[in-house]
Amino acid sequence: MSGLALSLSYNPRRHWRIIKETKKEWQRIGEDELRKEINNLYRSRVVKAKDNSDGTCTIILTERGRLKSLTYKLSEMSIQKKEWDGKWRVVIFDIPEKIREGRDAIRQKLKNLGFVELQKSVFVYPYECKNEIDFVIEFFGLRKYVRYGVMESIDNAPHLEYLFHLSSKQFS
């Protein structure tokens, strides 16, 4: 489990903490159990082994494994809310009917992340989220159909501020 945590963590301080905890985990794992689990990984085709010229072996995440880890990361994704800078992040897309599943998936993911739908294919959010949106776009393979922008003002800002709990004004 610590291997997965290490691969999904971007914070160097967290890496060291995970590595420290891994030592304790290794002491609890028996060699037979470890071999069994490694064989299960090979059979599931999420990793493959590559023998190196120096006699070592490198374990590589396959495309199937990469998609599995991305799916896990996508389901856990959230956007960190910092102090609002008064700008609006806008995601606009025009995805063809032939890839309707991708369009529906990105629409649902934006809603799950807390975006508000301004129009059928236009979503808005008040906090910085470019990295998260880039990840979602890449995950669904929709880069050429999706645009991300930052707006300084919008005519219904008071209503959006209310929806995102940035204002105490009441709108209906």
Give the integer mean of the pLDDT values. 81
Report the CATH architecture of the largest domain: 2-Layer Sandwich
Q: How much helical structure, as a percent, in the residues? A: 40-55%
Number of helices: 7
Overall tally of domains: 2
Please report the first level of CATH classification, the CATH class of the largest domain. Answer: Alpha Beta
Secondary structural class = alpha+beta
Beta-strand percent range: 15-25%
CATH domain topology of the largest domain: Alpha-Beta Plaits
Shape: elongated
Largest sheet: 4 strands, antiparallel
Radius of gyration: 21 Å
Low-pLDDT windows of residues = 1-8
Q: Gap between N and C termini, in Å?
A: 48 Å
Widest sheet, order of strands? 4-5-3-6
How many β-strands, per DSSP? 6
Sequence of secondary-structure elements: HHHEEHEHEEHEH
